[in-house]
Amino acid sequence: MAVDVILGLQWGDEGKGKIVDYLAKDYDLVCRFQGGPNAGHTIKIGDDKFVLHTVPSGVFRENILNVIGNGVVLDPITLLKELAQLDTSGIEYKDRLFIAMKAHLILPTHRYLDAASEASKGKAKIGSTLKGIGPTYMDKTGRNGLRIGDLVSPNFQAKYEALKEKHLGMLKLYPDVEVDFDLEGEEKKWMESIEVIKKMNLINGEYFVNKAIREGKNILAEGAQGSMLDIDFGTYPYVTSSNTITSGVCNGLGIAPSAIGEVIGIVKAYCTRVGSGPFPSELDNEMGEKLRRLGSEFGATTGRPRRCGWLDIPQLLYTIMLNGVTQVVMTKLDILDEFENIDVATHYSVDGGNATKELPYDLCDGDIQMITKSYPGWNKSLDNCDNFNDLPMETKSYVSAMSSLLGVPISMISTGPERRKLMGVPR
Ligand code: GDP
Ligand code: IMO
Ligand code: MG
Fold first, then answer.
1. Cα-to-centroid distance, 234 and ligand 2 (Å)
2. Does 240 contact ligand 2 (Cβ within 6 A)?
3. Burial of 299 (0-12, 13-18, 19+ CB in 10 A)
4. Does 207 lie in the same domain as 95?
5. Which pLDDT does position 2 carry in this prediction?
6. Domain of 273, in residue numbers
7. Can you give the pTM of this predicted structure?
8. Which-ligand-closest: CA of 306?
9. DSSP structural state of residue 72
10. What ligand is nearest to the CA atom of residue 136?
11. Do both 80 and 124 map to the same domain?
């Protein structure tokens, strides 16, 4: 088994970036396989804080190669901004960052269309990050997209113009929508950026990754978003436009299912969601506000406040099933330091029906009541705990109870944003 997977089991922002950065030291390659600059993966190293959108979170570990796989959608402008941040901090990445030629390009008009489409939806908006993700994947599946490999094609300019014209035609579908978008300015930046991208390490990603597998290299696939935002199995239509689950690794890197090894599901010790859509265990009250304040729950990409709620076991059992999760890493346990009791939703009751651990067809429909169980909080800081045995008894009991409810071992827990705030859980 050569390719281990890290992905979020909730609605994103579970702390994937921190865990990938930590574990990357044990791998040779870290690969992003889907999503794009809608992702915001925060990594704290000493006093420095980095937010990565497209670059894999293995970039801070020397000698590790980082691949932006074919399943990713890439905005040249955002990528260069991100790389500039790395340059400023003296992070050397040029020989270690590789881009699959089959990855699709986000054009300025994709972002324009995203903004117009969202504005036209009014209250029914998805709450998109407006990075052009939906329109770019639409062009991919509609067989109209432009790929990184096209940048060096002799008729690139003609292809670009044709796609742009198509988009300008589509924008006429929204005559009543006012969107403030400087197309000329964005296009100029985009054209300058692609000149830089062309000189980067552009690869046949599927050959690159499969060769690494054959050579016995250790590979880590880094998921973006969360399983509940998956295009097929998430809370449709309030989802993103890619397969965020384990199956997306095969399509997004060009590898066989048999190459998948460990599947590490990241779970925040409570739950958050940013953007619109159903969130059964949401706490639209003071408790939710407390979680947001203590957890600094504001989007890493858009700065929007994240909606907060308790852990939702039926939701997690669903995503553990979809992903074939072999171990869970639980993050942000320290945020629960100041809670008298910690509630957990153990079952759903839909439209007054019997308690169930199964999610209904559509979480948007019907009246979903949460059946919760309360666990005693620890009411002290975890700050001085460096290993599992140092933890208060209530913390250990909570972790052990969650592991039993999920039916999967919790192998590590995280108690702070810094690298060192991570500890193994004895079996
Ligand atoms: P990602 O998108 O899954 O990588 O997660 P984000 O970076 O969007 O959001 C997670 C936030 O929680 C970031 O600000 C991290 O620095 C922070 N974080 C990660 N793990 C922990 C933890 O165990 N405790 C605390 N307090 N913060 C954490
Ligand atoms: P990371 O990788 C949390 C949400 C958006 C919106 C929906 C669709 O940091 O966990 P899109 O821009 O994809 O069209 O938005 O998905 N969303 C995320 N929420 N974390 C993310 O990424 C997200 N990426 C997209 O808020 O509700
Ligand atoms: Mg994030």
1. 12
2. yes
3. middle
4. yes
5. 87
6. 269-414
7. 0.97
8. 2
9. B
10. 2
11. no
